[in-house]
Design goal:
The protein has 439 residues and is α+β, with helices and mostly antiparallel strands. Helix content is 43%, strand content 12%.
């Protein structure tokens, strides 16, 4: 198997994580980190510099996610009497450097105060002691445990998001009812549903794309790790090499291989499909009963928000039942921030329960605060119930010394391209060996 995990990784992370949060992140950028940075032009003396993928929203903008973020920033500006200056990655010349590469460079050189970072970048910079420990914030006391777990590096909470991104299976409940099928909980039940659909003339029961099949793997690999009461001990064993990532991953990869071999997934199509754009039309036309997507896709009119059938969003099959897979970006402050006190104050306000309530209500998303709840649509209630029960697995965890989301996605793509399960496991073993050697 030809493994090119590192070379492709940053583009994948940009596409899979920050873009999922609807912040319009572009995939790559200039090698000169100054050329592609747009400033908002405000020269007020009391400022905080924010580096991220988005400019400040224009009046009457239709980008709800950006508008909600801007409103929380405005809360901080008014309360603190300062200006948050947006330094925006625009990717006008996108052939040379990714957003992640530019972010790493800017944090390492103390070029800004506040950053929106992807999980791999959080992990790298946290291990280098380049990010502040945000547990000092008052707002950090209100965080869900899932947020703390995902963004803690070497015992320090180094990043906090404004929303938790949960992935699930989007299913056409009407098609399940047509064939008297209960919504599946375990891998065995899921496989049986696919068999029934296939035997009744549904050519491809699962609509898949090249980004999100790793969620099947995470659900099976880490169901007990995150829900067995000894998460820290198990992760420590992985980080020390006392346990193998490949042993956790193997059942999920064997499951995917069986789905491919039985024709329940079209591997050739999935390898080329972009998320939602590729498999979405067949799902919306009721030619396929199952796809996978993120929470907000059920709210969006441009994705799966308006359908002519009964949509239900459930967790991925696991030995512990339907399992949501959670990933998240995070806001972080570099240790060399020029305006440290003001930046801490800004972050504390935009992550306050008041600001997060505004953000969550506007975007209809899961809040990182355990005190903020937003009524979700009926389709999302099965997934939401599991998260409220603290039943989930993490697709991104800065505390693991092998980055999860991007590497797993790329190795799954090798499976789609014909690699064996053993070859995929060898790739995980090599990544773990490299991480151990680095530490």
């Amino acid at each position: 198997m030809k493994r090119k995990v590192k070379g492709k990784y940053n583009k994948l992370m940009t596409a899979c994580i920050i873009e999922v949060m609807a912040l319009a992140l572009t995939a790559c950028g200039s090698s000169n980190t100054g050329e592609n940075i747009v400033f908002d032009g405000n020269d007020d003396k009391k400022i905080v510099n924010l580096f991220g993928p988005m400019e400040k929203s224009k009046p009457n903008t239709s980008n709800i996610a950006r508008t909600a973020f801007d409103r929380t920033i405005e809360m901080a500006e008014e309360e603190l009497g300062l200006t948050v200056r947006y330094r925006t990655y625009t990717a006008e010349n996108y052939q040379e450097k990714t957003y992640d590469e530019v972010s790493l460079d800017r944090v390492r050189n103390d070029m800004d105060d506040l950053y929106l970072l992807n999980p791999d970048t959080i992990q790298a910079l946290g291990s280098e002691d380049k990010l502040m420990d945000l547990s000092v914030l008052d707002s950090a006391k209100n965080l869900r445990e899932v947020v703390k777990t995902a963004n803690t590096v070497d015992g320090k909470l180094v990043a906090i998001p404004q929303e938790v991104v949960a992935h699930g299976l989007f299913v056409n409940k009407d098609m399940f009812d047509q064939y008297d099928l209960a919504l599946p909980n375990t891998p065995e039940e899921f496989m049986e549903c696919c068999r029934v659909f296939k035997e009744n003339g549904i050519e491809t029961p699962i609509g898949a794309n090249r980004w999100w099949l790793e969620n099947f793997v995470f659900a099976q690999a880490y169901a007990r790790l995150y829900n067995g009461g000894n998460t820290e001990t198990l992760i420590e064993a992985l980080n020390k090499g006392e346990a193998k990532y490949s042993d956790y991953m193997r059942p999920g990869f064997e499951f995917l291989k069986e789905l491919i071999d039985k024709g329940y997934i079209d591997a050739e199509a999935a390898y080329t499909y972009e998320a939602i754009e590729g498999e979405g039309p067949d799902f919306m036309a009721q030619r396929t009963p199952i796809v996978m997507a993120y929470w907000s896709a059920a709210n969006s009119e441009t994705a799966y928000g308006k359908l002519d059938f009964n949509l239900q969003v459930i967790g991925f099959p696991s030995e512990l039942g339907q399992m949501p897979v959670v990933s998240m970006t995070g806001y972080a402050i570099c240790t060399g921030a020029e305006h440290m006190d003001d930046t801490l104050a800004v972050l504390d306000i935009i992550l306050s329960d008041e600001a997060l309530q505004l953000y969550a209500q506007t975007n209809k998303v899961i809040s990182p605060s355990k005190n903020v709840e937003v009524e979700c649509i009926d389709a999302l209630k099965p997934l939401n119930e599991r998260i409220n029960e603290n039943m989930y697995v993490l697709g991104s965890n800065a505390g693991m010394n092998v980055e999860q989301w991007g590497n797993t996605c790329l190795i799954v793509r090798e499976l789609l391209n014909g690699a064996t399960v053993d070859e995929c496991m060898a790739a995980f073993d090599k990544l773990q060996e490299e991480a151990l050697n680095k530490s």
